Amino acid sequence: MIGTASVATANESEYGTTIPDDGPAYGVNSSDFYRLWSNDVDDGGLSEDEFEDGEVDPREGAERALARSTDIPFEHPPKAAEDWTRGDFQDYNSGGSEESVAPADANLTDGTYIKDAFVSIAAVQPSTILHDTNATNTTQYVAPDGEVLAVSDFRVALPDDEKTDRERVEWSLVDTSIETVTLEADGQTLSTDDGHRSILGYSNLSDSVTLEVEATISAELEAETESCTDWNANSEVCEEWESYDDTISVEQTVRDTQSVVVNQLSNVSGRRVNFEAKSDRVGAAVHPDTEWSTITVDGDIRARSNWWFYTAGTPGWDEMVTHKANGSTTSASSVRPVQVHAFPSEAEPHVPTELANGTVPLRIEETWGEERTGPELPSVIDLETASPYTNADSVALSSETLDEGALEEVTVDGIVRGQSETVTLSELQAVHEANLTLTVTEDNSTHATVRAEVTDTTTGDPVSGGRVEIGNQSVPLDQNGTAVITVQNPGLTIRGEYNPEGWWRTDQPYSSAATTTIVPREFLGFQTFVDLVIVTLLWFLPVALLAFGVDYVTNGELLGLKRHSRDR
Predict the structure, then answer these.
(1) pLDDT > 90 in the chain, percent
(2) Do 81 and 313 meet the contact criterion of CB atoms below 8 Å apart?
């Protein structure tokens, strides 16, 4: 199936759950190295003493113990996975002409003389296996530009020497080689190499492709034949021999394939908005149109998606099998490639960036996309996935601290390391200011009928989208920008709010608005009268006290009240 990839499972072999003992190495620090092996066997019951190893640096010992007790995800596809894989790849050693050293799941091929021949893809990088809905049917995403790491080996089976009274045949191996290792994509040659270890680069891939590595193996054998030309029948001994050499050249072609999908970011789009009612607020709707890890604005302010990452050893590479003429032996692999995986986390998309004063400069208003059932990761992976979850291929952002130009250019990072796209959001739209008017059209002692009308503050045109809320009631506006709401047991005043559609969801966005209207009454009941007196006092008492205080301090200049003192 196009784009499918194998996934590590628990207890593949006695070596598959062990962290390699030759790391940290190849520029990968201890903090990252011990996190690379999520398919190791975790022990959540480690004691405090096991977090302290006197033979290593205390920090490294703690990091190693933590990785043994649980799995730690990455926020971004880690470069450490590639660095380790490329470095450890150099540890592969072929077996010579009499042995073929192959990963456990290599597809071996036998010819007449060339035996146990194979080529195996160790890694395609950078790449990420996506766990979106089903862990048994995953997709391996790659960047348009990358490399394929492959190993190849074989052994040569020489025929047994022959010896009779009248003929002798001795076999010898003259030469062997892996002449070419070729990388193709759907029949098109991308790069070539030779030897037992090959690093094959590619560029400008697109869509779904099948990468094929083909190795051509050659061997040259020599048969030295001696034939009797003078046979003594009496003594039954050959008196004279004639010799000649026969050279045999053979080739064997072996292949390995990997189906991948290029995770393009070429369809990123979006638009910016400003707000008439709040000039210091800006916003942008960004549509990556695919899985993404971060969106960056204003240089270093990031929004994080709900896709998180873990790494694990590539299945089939924890063991190496040495094949000989008389059998095979298995040992721990000297090459342990690492694969990056992405999964939907229970953590919602968020903004991790904070300013020096502790404020978050960017707000995620909403994310939206396809609703999916979350995947089940292999049982050996100690990480929780979200289910169900939203594949947020669109996001609305806003800020009250950034200026308008900060959102003009955005950079979207994909789920494959190093893959990003920077786009300019040239479309700018205004979020218009709205005006809400409430009119009480009918009123009695039990209810009031309120007519709400929403218009564009600038043009006066009716606003037809959104809802008006009064109390616990919410009514949508009709095409004329009005809504009618019946309020039970109204007080002296009625407060209403206009809640527009999200500015990212409509072609003509509006800001929210609120207002209060007084309920007209021809008579006042006792309770209403009391309420009116209390409201009036609460409104005017602070003003009266303020005026009296000012007049007292100014010795009567405001109201003519003067302070008097007694003569003693």
Answers:
(1) 68
(2) no
